[in-house]
Amino acid sequence: MLARRALPSLFGLLFLLAACGSSLPDGGPAQSIHPQPQPNDGGVRITAPCTATACGAAPSNLGSPRCKPEAAGCGWSDDTAVSFRQCAESECGAAPGADVCPAGTTFRGNTCGSENESVCTWSTACAPPPSTVPCRDAEGCGGKPELGVICSDGSAGDLVCMQFASRCAWQRTCE
Questions:
Q1: What residues contact 130, with CB distance under 8 A and at least 6 apart?
Q2: Which terminus of the chain is more solvent-facing, meaning fewer CB atoms within 10 Å of its CB: N or C?
Q3: What residues does each domain of the chain span?
C-alpha cells in the first residue's frame, strides 16, 4: 500500500529533476551544441590545408575567427561548427605545425576531426599571448568560474581578470 502511494511521488520527483536538468538558470532550454561566440581576443583556429599566411590578417569583427578552405582558396569566417566527431590521425594526413599560426600567437595544438559531418581534417588552435594588464573594472569579467586550474608542472593555479584589447576576460595564472 505504501509503495503504491510513493510511486506517483517518485515519478513526479523524477520528472521535476529531468525538467530542471534540461534547462539553463534563466529558464531557457539547455544547448550543448556549441558555446556562444566570444569577442576576438587574438586567438584563432586554422583548418588544414590553410595557414594564417594564406588567409591574411583576421578581420577584427569576427567573434570566433577561423581560417578555412573556401571555393577560391582560404579565407576568414566566424567558426560555425555545431558538431564534432574525433577522427583517427591517419584520416587527416600529416599534422600541421606551429608555422600555420599568425605571428604573435602561440601554437596550442592540433585536433583531427570532422566538423558538421564533413571530411576529417586537422584543426589548429592558435592563442594570443597572455595579457599583462589587469582589468580596471573587476566586474568586467563577470562571475569567476568555479573550476580548478592545474598548471603544466602539476601545481595549482588560479584565474585572474585581465584586459584583452577592448574587453576583460578570465586568464589562467600559469601554463
A1: 162, 171, 172
A2: N
A3: 44-127, 138-172
